[in-house]
Amino acid sequence: MRIDCRRKQSGSMRVGGGSTTAFGFGTAIRQGMANFNADVEYDSSVGTESKPSNIWIGRTVEVGSYAPNAYGLYDMHGNVWEWCSDWYGDYPAGSVIDPQGPSTGFFRAIRGGSWFISGGRCRGAIRGNYGPGSKSFDLGFRVVLAPVR
Q: Which of 50, 123, 124, 144 could tie 10 with a disulfide, CB 3.0–4.6 Å?
């Protein structure tokens, strides 16, 4: 068995079909759309964060607590950062479909944001990184069942 944590970059996080929005549900992330630090919401259409609610769950929640994206995937934004099998590195110059990243490195990419951070960091375009042996209270992985080829 192999755990494939590669995110196909940020495509699975968005609606798909040529979507250019920051989130799978549009341009803004607000309380009730995902599990993130809702003390700080984000709207990519104006590029600003706001502090409207002072409501923060402060922990992970059960998968499926929020609506799925157009692919039927749950919690693509927030809840826990997800490990990616890609090594963390600079993006290639220009437009590339499914860039593979460097073949070696010191850090693995993580995506999706978590319950612990602001909404703007939960965008599909945002990556973080951790060393392969790292662990954190807001870091996990997504199990995917796929046919053997």
A: 124
